[in-house]
Amino acid sequence: MAFEGILLGMGNPLLDISAVVDDEFLQKYDIKLNNAILAEDKHKSMYEEMTSKYNVEYIAGGATQNSIKVAQWILQAAGATTFIGCIGKDKFGEEMKKNGKLAGVNVQYYEDENTPTGTCAVCVVGGERSLIANLSAANCYKSDHLKRPENWALVEKAKYFYIAGFFLTVSPDSIQLVAEHAAANNKIFTMNLSAPFICEFFKDAQEKVLPYMDYVFGNETEARTFSKVHGWETDNVEEIAIKISQWPKASGTHKRITVITQGADPVCVAEDGKVKLFPVILLPKEKLVDTNGAGDAFVGGFLSQLVQEKPIEECVRAGCYAANVIIQRSGCTYPEKPDFH
């Protein structure tokens, strides 16, 4: 099977500034664990404090880019994946380009002259993480870049698309262009709920693109927030997953499948009005380094099998494998070669 350019991701490229911090730091900046938020004014001095006070690591990240890199890593086929997003013309941007190339991803960044590359503070306490994203240049992506002939050619070449919900805050028109292209050409379009605040504050943008989604990813917290926002009056993840899968579709070519991860609890997959549960690989507490990127890695693993047209069981198995590898390391990083058979 020819894999070149088969999977295209679009999102917010962010340089993760990752550190193990303490409870006092979380309280000072009003940070809750296992959450993902956009930086506000009160977080401005946080990045500086992290780099001066703690031992930080810099890792090229951002939700969609993480997933695409993990898919590329498992596929081990040069140039199978493409990633589009916006960075600044600065040293962090250069770092990002270098990292993308090393990962084997075809990165096509729009470079903003006036805005620094986006960063994401990854605060780790007891293996659990919280993300505070300062989008900066990532927020400047324009659909004009996507429409350039050389970039649109990449969209036309791809057969699978993945976009994290975070990109709804940046360029909903770019998402719409890709979603409509996928529906018109029988391609597979996938998205992620990504964070409770997306379901709450970007509800309209999310609803507009939902009919185009063939696969919807998310975790149990996001699923419950989605349910609450839509007045479904249920906290039952299985019920919510079914309801999301039954949301009207823009094209009848593919049915919608909802995939909800629940930490150490089984992965919930809803299709055809039924739910299947798949156990995850349990990890002894002492082996857990940090959960940053676990959800992204799951999606990347899942997509690596989906683009090979493998059955859903295999997609979930690869997702669980990838998440298990990533939580034993700092940030969304992985060994040189996968050990997935």
Report on this structure.
The chain is α/β, with parallel strands linked by helices and 341 residues long. The protein has one domain (7-13, 62-117, 136-327): Ribokinase (UDP-N-acetylmuramoyl-L-alanine:D-glutamate ligase, 3-Layer(aba) Sandwich), CATH 3.40.1190. Helix content is 37%, strand content 24%. The protein contains 13 helices and 14 strands. It has helices spanning 23-28, 46-53, 63-75, 91-102, 143-147, 149-157, 172-184, 196-201, 203-209, 220-229, 237-245, 294-306, 312-326, and strands at residues 7-10, 14-20, 36-38, 57-61, 81-88, 106-112, 119-125, 128-134, 160-164, 188-192, 215-219, 257-262, 265-271, 274-278. A 9-stranded mixed sheet has the order 6-5-1-9-10-11-12-13-14, with helices on both faces. A 5-stranded mixed sheet has the order 3-8-7-2-4. The longest helix is centred in the C-terminal third of the chain and has 15 residues, at 312-326. The chain is globular.
The CATH topology is given as UDP-N-acetylmuramoyl-L-alanine:D-glutamate ligase
In round numbers, the mean pLDDT is 94
Radius of gyration: 18 Å
- The rough form would be described as globular
The CATH H-level superfamily is: Ribokinase
Give the quaternary arrangement of the chains: single chain
Q: Span between N and C termini?
A: 18 Å
Tally of extended strands? 14
GO molecular function, one term: adenosine kinase activity
InterPro entries: Adenokinase, Carboh/pur_kinase_PfkB_CS, PfkB_dom, Ribokinase-like
Protein name: Adenosine kinase
Family: Belongs to the carbohydrate kinase PfkB family.
